[in-house]
């Protein structure tokens, strides 16, 4: 028997979100029903909504949810009714990547997180008139007061966890931190440049400070974000609109060749190319910001070869959510990861303002509160 709930629905790509009454279909054995209390608003949600990333409509997005479990399918043992949970990406747990501890690179990553339907082609959500509704975004579609959640998206947290503070850990913030801690594996006393200091980049800045990097260089075009980056741990900042050559500025800070590690959170091709060029010999660079599919960056192969550089991609910062989320909560409790400085909370009825503020850069990390 289906239930009714309220959700933010996108009826067509590049159209407006609307708050609507929808139907929640019965759970499958590997799903849980979660009453959402808070949902982070991620750049990926907005990119899918505008068509910058592939998406089908009508749909419910949202993939940084936090809430309380109200029902579980027979196969779910990750959490029980009444547990508080934070929600992250879904994965199959059976493929070579999953069984090797690399769940962010699951063979079924695209199907489970961007497919819009279950493996059997059905959906856990429907429009108010019963018409099909694309859902299961990152295994959760948490722009809904009641979310049908894939079991592997569930991360149980203590009952005193403030969900509206920690909901964004499920994607953007664990991506930034994980890029530093996992994919790049930044070492104490090293140098790192972070290109783009929105929520992902600022999370990376905090993680680099946790790792005790000697130089943490933040690069952006917005003075307010660069100022906050300094507050959160950046040792140097570069406003790329105020200098002739970002690469030369980085080399001045870290002579003669550049940094040990570099991270791009912008997804802008020209910035990615500069990031790779900013590496010192044997340096390692990573892309965490996503451009549109099909985009290619140019690499000076000879320089890359003789200097022993590395350039890799990462999804979710290579993070295993059930490990990374508790770790970041603990770092926050130790006052080493003050994510409250980048978050602004909005009532769900103010979703239009939250989206506008996020797009305009007024708010770094918007969180929609459902309670």
Question: Mind explaining what this structure looks like?
Answer:
With 371 residues, the protein is an alpha/beta fold. The protein has two domains: 200 residues, Medium-chain alcohol dehydrogenases, catalytic domain (Quinone Oxidoreductase, Chain A, domain 1); 141 residues, 3-Layer(aba) Sandwich (Rossmann fold). It is built from twelve helices and 16 strands. Strands 3, 4, 5, 7, 8, 15 and 16 form a seven-stranded mixed β-sheet that branches. The protein has a six-stranded parallel β-sheet with strand order 11-10-9-12-13-14, with helices on both faces. Helix 10 links the parallel strand 13 and strand 14. The protein is globular. The mean pLDDT is 97. GO terms for molecular function: S-(hydroxymethyl)glutathione dehydrogenase [NAD(P)+] activity; zinc ion binding. Pfam families: ADH_N, ADH_zinc_N. Belongs to the zinc-containing alcohol dehydrogenase family.
* Largest sheet properties: 7 strands, mixed
Q: What fraction strand?
A: 25-35%
CATH architecture tag of the largest domain:
Alpha-Beta Complex
Helix vs. strand class: alpha/beta
**Tally of helical segments:** 12
Number of domains: 2
Which radius of gyration do the C-alpha atoms yield? 20 Å
* N-to-C series of helices and strands: EEEHEEHHEEEHHEHEHEHEHEHEHEHE
Name the helicity range: 25-40%
Predict the CATH topology of the largest domain. Quinone Oxidoreductase, Chain A, domain 1
